[in-house]
Amino acid sequence: MNTVLLTGGTGTLGRAVAPRVVAEGHDLRILSRTASADSTRFLGDLATGAGLDRALRGVDTIIHCATNPRRGDRNLTQRLIDCAVRAEKPAHLIYISIVGVDQIPLGYYREKLATEQAIAASRLGYTVLRATQFHNLIWSIFRAQRRIPVVLAPSIRLQPIDVRDVATRLVAHVATGPAGQTPDIGGPEIFSAQRLALATLGSRRAILPLRLPGKTFSAFRAGYNLVPANRAGTRTFAQFLAER
């Protein structure tokens, strides 16, 4: 049995990871900025470093799902690394990243890549897993447009993956130990964004395809966000929609 500290435990991915950690027989700790009567919650703040030393005491593995674009993932993760390195028993750090962070010049992606590099440069054993966009993200982007007459959809392809499939892969690394940079994973199907918009909102909606200038859009158009050779996800977007 491993003692696992989960960051970002209340987020989309974290909520899928937590029950899988428990199901695999590990001892779960969830890092939280607020005090709670829940025995799995450990007070700690990645932004300030407060409470991290206590939360990491006796931890074997960290599954790092927390993200905060405003504060910067690189800075938050460096505080976590610094505390983990000086712990009596340095933990195995598992980090979730995004397919294409090294090819797509989006600001958030550059921050994720810098975070990967900080982890690799640390003295911790680590595992980095890049995944394509979650079903939940694609759904929310198009559902946000449900009340406007014309839906905007970029002229790119997407390979959405179910968050539960990603959670399963992350938790599997708890038992297997540090693996470094692992193969990228994607969902079982690749569709145009327009088709995913129609699936989300209904086939009668008017879709306006978007083609934008710039290197970021060109990188998406080139398919750097896709992993056609490793369709590791098992749940399709249609199955996700049916469950909603």
UniProtKB/TrEMBL annotation:
Cited InterPro entries: HCF244-like (IPR044256), NAD(P)-bd_dom (IPR016040), NAD(P)-bd_dom_sf (IPR036291)
Annotated ranges, domain NAD(P)-binding: 8-136
One Pfam family here: NAD_binding_10
GO BP term (any one): photosynthesis
Assigned keywords, A-Z: Photosynthesis, Photosystem II
GO cellular component terms listed in the entry, alphabetical order: photosystem II
Cross-referenced PANTHER family: PROTEIN HIGH CHLOROPHYLL FLUORESCENCE PHENOTYPE 244, CHLOROPLASTIC (PTHR47128:SF2), PTHR47128
Protein name: SDR family oxidoreductase
Species name: Cryobacterium suzukii
